[in-house]
Amino acid sequence: MRIGLEIHVQLPTRSKLFCGCSTGGDGPNSMVCPVCLGFPGSRPFLNRKALEMGILITKFLNCKITDRVWFSRKTYFYPDLPKNFQITQYESALGFDGHFMVGEKRIGIWRVHIEEDPGRIKRVGRAGEEVSLIDYNRSGVPLVEIVTAPDLSSPAEARDFLTDLIIELRRLIGVSGEDQTMRVDANISVGEDRVEIKNITGLKNVEKGLKSEVTRQTKLLAVGKRIVRETRHYDESRGVTLPGREKEQEADYGYIGEPDLGTYLIGPLAVSMVVPETPLVRANRMQKEHGIGAQAARQIVLTDWELADLFESLSRRVGGETAMSWTMGPISSGWKVLKANADGAWEKVTDIVMAVSEGRMSDSEGRLRIVALSGGQEIEETNNGPSTDLDSLIVRLVDQHPEVVKDFNKGNEKAANFLIGLVMKETKGQFASKVIAEKMKKELGKRV
Amino acid sequence: MSFFPSAAWLKDLDERHLLFTERLEDPLAFEGGQFHFSAKDNLCARDFQARAGSLVLKGYRPPFDATPIKRLRENGGLLLGKTNMDEFGFGSFSTNSAYGIPRNPFDIERCCGGSSGGAAAAACLIPDHLALGVSTGGSISCPSSFCGVVGLTPTYGRVSRWGLIDYGNSLDKVGLISRTVRDIEQYLPVMAGPDPRDPTSLVQPALDLRGEVRTIGVPAEARTGLSPEVAGAFEEALRELQRTGIKVREVRMPSLRFAISTYYILATSEASTNLARYCGMRFGAMNEEFDQGFNDFFSDTRSRDFGTEAKRRILLGTFSRMVGFRNKYYVKALQVRKQIIGEYQKVMEDCDVVLTPTMPFVAPRFDEIEMMRPLEMYQADYLTCPPNLTGMPHLSMPCGYAHSMPIGMQAVAPHWKEGTLLSLARSWEGIFHYRFPEVAE
Amino acid sequence: MDKETVLKVARVARLKLTDEELERFAADLEDILTAFSVLDEAPGAEDFDLGPIKVEDVLRDDEVTTNADASELREVMGTKDDWVRGPRLS
Question: Is the interface score ipTM higher than 0.95?
Answer without folding.
Answer: yes
